Structure formats: structure tokens, C-alpha cells
């Protein structure tokens, strides 16, 4: 029985890198009712170039990995890993909502206090 990941939408599209081009596409279509777009680099490309929409996935993974518990894979059970990812995402969204629309500002280096 398929589980619609987003029942209010018709068919959400998920950009994915070419490493996941195998059975994941069919599984996601049947089980999650979602469409996976495989983002491939052009055949004539040499070296690094930004791929469309892939930066959003990489940026999200970088934000989540900033949490200490997600920096390494310590968990034995997938449910625990999923809970930690949800916890990190909730913390990220809470900080954004509390900011009230102002852009994020990184803290600068604090000067050392020499006496």
C-alpha cells in the first residue's frame, strides 16, 4: 500500500544526484508517491561546476551535520537516527522563526582578553 508523503500535493519532485539512479526511483514512485529527478552533470564537463538544485540538498545536509549528534553515525537503530534528524531540523526552524525574518548573522571572533 503506497504511503503518500504529501497528500495535498499531486506529485512532489525531489532532486537527487546520479549516485541514487538505481532502484530508488521506482521505490519512491511506488511507496512515497513522489518523483525523483536525477541531476546529472553534462557529458563535456571537466572539473567542478554547480548543478541545478543540487546545492539545496547539499546545503540542507550541511546544516543538519552542524549538530554534534549528526556529525558521525553513532546510532544503532534507524529510528534513533531519524529522531535526531527531526530534532536538528526542529531546532533549525525554531531559530529561524524566532529571528522574525531578519537575516542570519554569524558571530565574529571575540578578541582575546590579555591582561
From TrEMBL:
What is this protein called in UniProt?
A: Transposase DDE domain-containing protein
What is the organism of origin for this protein? Actinomadura livida
